[in-house]
Design goal:
Layout: E1 2-5, E2 23-26, E3 47-49, E4 71-73, E5 95-97, E6 119-121, H1 132-140, E7 154-157, H2 170-177, E8 183-185, E9 212-218, E10 222-226, E11 231-240, E12 244-249, E13 258-263, E14 269-275, E15 284-292, E16 295-306, H3 328-345, E17 351-353, E18 392-400, E19 403-409, E20 419-425, E21 430-436, E22 442-445, E23 453-460, E24 470-474, H4 475-520, H5 525-528, E25 535-536, H6 558-562, E26 584-585
Parallel strand pairs: 1-2, 2-3, 3-4, 4-5, 5-6, 6-7, 7-8, 10-16, 17-21
Antiparallel strand pairs: 9-11, 11-14, 12-15, 13-14, 15-16, 18-19, 19-22, 20-21, 20-23, 23-24, 25-26
Length: 586
């Protein structure tokens, strides 16, 4: 039995359709929706044609109970989607016609329900791409004929869709260009719609790249730079399509820089984060994120800000503390560079806080802020004249890890000249001031932090210190130096005792033995006076023939002189003046 309904004024499917209907045709009506129970009693229905109606959607239960359905034609409607999961209840379905609708996409799960369909028409919709799972299903069917008995083919209609020719269409283009004899296309010459550069180009003429997840590349994982410099953090990425790059801080802080994007000749996309005039606040972890529709990946770059120029030495202290291995001249040059850098990177005149030594909280109100940071601590402000090098040779004398003694020379100073000592933790702008009593060139600073680097300057009160009037010290270095010196003194004294005591005992025994023998036994004079030998240690030129001569004849009082302090402790006091009388040592 066949039922045909084509009344253009119909808005709902008819009721009481005979249950023995085999073929139902509802065509060219005004039906916009189908109630869920409309076809439940049609268990013998094999052909359901509903072309050119006004359907906009279909429910998943619309086709419930149609186990014998073989053809489903829904072309010429306004369907925005199709209930693909309902195909599981129609195992005998072979033809599905959905052409000339408004379908915009096909879900990946649809690949599970179209394996038995030999005719699928998706042409004249608004599809831009097809899911990879659906392409893989059709590709796997190319290996063997779908119907080996009658050599049937799978017929696909994919034409007249706005295909986007990018990497997501790579598998589909490859599938069409290398089609199997088991698959036929209603129209094999498919065209690209977008991008504009490929609009109207046939699939057989385009070369697409396979989609790739983003991969992030960084030149370095750690960047170490000096305070006040400009830092460029580079991050590159590869992927198809080209991933989008973005920067953020690991601690969630705000980025104090600008981002520049560029693409290199090899197709790699680069993002450059520029941080001008970095400070300690810019230290931390920076995250570069690359993202495309396949996923996202991140890379970390650690930025370390230091005041030392030895940024390439991984063993150097982050704070740039001098390791003490250089000579005195090299150490002075190193500290001079640090002072200069402190001057350059300080953008305003340091604020003078409360003095530790005097309890004052004065501010230099007569010192104006200099707009050029390079002029700070280099020369006095206009209108102020300082005698040429009033303060010289500023040096730190170690005391404890919480205090230091500062000394300097001021040969041109008068007894009424008052000096100011300015000090601060290196890198900070707030400086404390201590006013020194007139005529003094030495002061002790208390309340320092252990293992901390400081900058200290000495100048005439009311003036801005010069660069050469400043020095840098670390409290841990002062303590280490003091401890090392004490250790050296203990070692020297111990060694001297170990060497001097045995020698003294030997000489005493020899003298005692000699006196005993002199009293009881008379021997030749040469034997009596040869109990010890002497060698000339005069640094002056020795007469020819005298070098290496042993002096063996001395008065008995000579042994007393050998036991004096000069025979051991002062044995290094070699005469330095030419022509001075020779001295002899044991």
């Amino acid at each position: 039995r066949t039922v045909l309904c084509n009344d253009p004024e119909m808005t709902l499917p008819p009721v009481n359709i005979p249950v023995d209907t085999i073929k139902l045709r509802i065509e060219k009506t005004a039906i916009r929706r189908v109630p869920g129970e409309a076809f439940h009693l049609l268990h013998n229905l094999e052909y359901l044609w509903m072309p050119y109606n006004s359907l906009t959607s279909l429910s998943g239960i619309t086709f419930k109970g149609l186990h014998r359905l073989q053809e489903l034609r829904l072309d010429g409607n306004n369907l925005l989607s199709f209930p693909w999961e309902s195909l599981a209840g129609m195992p005998l379905l072979r033809l599905l016609d959905l052409h000339n609708n408004e379908l915009t996409s096909i879900p990946p799960d649809a690949a599970r329900y179209v394996r038995n369909i030999t005719y699928l028409d998706l042409s004249s919709n608004k599809l831009m791409t097809l899911p990879q799972a659906l392409i893989a299903t059709w590709t796997s069917l190319q290996a063997v004929p779908y119907f080996p008995s009658d050599n049937s083919k799978i017929i696909l209609g994919l034409q007249d869709n706005p295909w986007v020719c990018d990497c997501s269409l790579y598998e589909m283009v490859h599938f069409l260009n290398f089609q199997s004899p088991n698959i036929a296309f209603i129209e094999p010459r498919l065209k690209c719609s977008t991008p504009r550069s490929l609009a109207g180009v046939f699939f057989s003429q385009v070369e697409l790249r396979k989609c790739q997840s983003p991969v992030v590349h960084t030149s370095v994982a750690k960047v170490k730079t000096i305070l006040g410099s400009t830092v460029l953090l580079r991050c590159g990425t590869t992927g198809v399509p080209i991933p989008e790059l973005s920067w953020r801080r690991a601690d969630g802080g705000q980025l104090n820089g600008t981002v520049h994007q560029e693409i290199s000749s090899d197709g790699m996309s680069w993002s450059i984060l520029g941080l001008p005039v970095v400070s300690y606040l810019d230290s931390g972890e920076y995250i570069c994120k690359a993202k495309n529709f396949l996923g996202a990946t991140e890379a970390f770059i650690s930025l370390i800000i230091t005041d030392s120029e030895s940024t390439d030495d991984p063993n150097s202290n982050v704070k740039g503390t001098w390791n003490g291995k250089a000579s005195g001249m090299e150490a002075a040059a190193y500290n001079d560079k640090l002072v200069a850098r402190y001057v350059i990177t300080t953008s305003t005149v340091p604020t003078l806080g409360a003095g530790v030594g005097t309890g004052e909280g004065l501010l230099l109100t007569d010192v104006e802020q200099d707009s050029n940071p390079r002029n700070l601590l280099v020369s006095p402000s206009p209108g102020q004249k300082e005698p040429e090098r009033m303060v010289r040779s500023v040096r730190v004398i170690g005391d404890t890890d919480q205090s230091i003694t500062l000394a300097w020379k001021a040969p041109l100073a008068k007894n009424t000249t008052v000096f100011s000592v300015l000090y601060a933790v290196f890198g900070e702008r707030d400086m404390r001031r201590i006013n020194v009593e007139p005529g003094k060139t030495k002061v002790t600073i208390y309340g320092l932090l252990p293992k901390t680097k400081y900058i200290v300057c000495v100048c005439v009160k009311g003036l801005i210190p010069r660069k050469e009037q400043c020095t840098i010290f670390s409290t841990d270095e002062v303590v280490s130096a003091g401890g090392t010196q004490k250790l050296i003194n203990v070692v020297v004294i111990s060694v001297a005792c170990v060497i001097a005591v045995p020698l003294t005992l030997v000489v005493c025994c020899g003298a005692l033995k000699r006196r005993c023998k002199k009293c009881f036994v008379r021997k030749p004079k040469e034997i009596q006076e040869s109990y010890v030998t002497f060698e000339s240690l005069s640094p002056g030129a020795k007469a020819k023939g005298v070098e290496g001569e042993y002096l063996t004849r001395h008065t008995p009082d000579e042994s007393n002189r050998l036991l004096s302090a000069r025979s051991s402790v002062d044995s290094e006091a070699i005469p330095k003046i030419e022509g001075q009388p020779n001295e002899y040592f044991c």
